[in-house]
Design a protein that fits this description.
Helix 1 (8-26) packs parallel to helix 3 (50-71) and helix 3 (50-71) packs antiparallel against helix 4 (95-106). This protein folds into two domains: 8-120, no CATH class; 126-204, Histidine-containing Protein, Chain: A. It is α/β, with parallel strands linked by helices. It is built from seven helices and eight strands; from the N terminus they run αβααββαββαββαβα. The termini are far apart.
Length: 215
């Protein structure tokens, strides 16, 4: 899909529609889809283009279908896409399934690369998944409270106590976000899946503040 530049209002509406479709499909699928719902404020501050954000949502949906076709319900797989890079987390029964999932997702349209963090082991329990969801929330809250990190630019994924950080960030931001994440209780390990950009590149992707003109 080529990048396009609709108005912010239309962009937000489109993303909301896609996310609603994602929620409806995930209720029927045996897989968990990575990525949290985003509002119009997050769309504006996201460091990806609007087209890339839409691509990432589409990739996650298609990846779920491909994984389901590849291994059925023999495993617990999360596919999280950021800037067309897909992170695979969860559990599969054997190495053959692990490679099969990676190959299936790599074949999804617009996927640039796949980071395969699938573990060969039995599926995690519902309790463990609930703990991971809570851990993700705690890490996100810590990033927001820090003030010196743009939390909206970082996607957080937790799996069995390991926290994966995705996003387009500078080396300075990557280090700070990693340190903050390690400080959260319950985090056993931090894995950086960042796309590191320069400070100059950051200046080009950071939206300019809107200045209200007074009469």
């Amino acid at each position: 899909m080529n990048d396009f530049k609709p108005t912010p209002r239309r962009s937000a509406a489109l993303l909301v529609s896609l996310l609603a479709a994602s929620a409806a499909l995930s209720a029927c699928a045996p897989l968990l889809i990575g990525g949290a719902a985003v509002g119009s404020a997050l769309v504006v501050t996201d460091r990806r283009t609007t087209g890339t954000q839409v691509d990432d949502q589409s990739i996650e949906l298609k990846a779920a279908n491909r994984v389901s076709q590849a291994i059925g319900d023999r495993g617990h797989v999360n596919a999280t896409s950021y800037n067309r890079v897909v992170l695979l987390t969860g559990e599969v029964p054997d190495e053959a399934a692990r490679l099969k999932v990676e190959q299936a997702v790599a074949g999804v349209e617009n996927v640039k690369s796949v980071v395969n963090e699938l573990a060969v082991m039995g599926n995690s329990s519902l309790t463990a998944r609930s703990n991971d969801a809570l851990l993700t929330s705690k890490v996100k809250a810590t990033l927001v409270d820090a003030k010196d990190v743009q939390a909206n630019a970082i996607k957080v994924v937790s799996e069995r106590g390991t926290v994966y950080l995705m996003g387009r960030v500078t080396e300075r931001e990557a280090g700070r976000a990693s340190d903050l994440t390690r400080s959260v209780g319950g985090v056993q390990k931090v894995v950086r899946v960042f796309e590191v950009i320069t400070e100059a590149e950051l200046a080009n992707v950071t939206p300019s503040p809107v200045v209200e003109k007074k009469p």
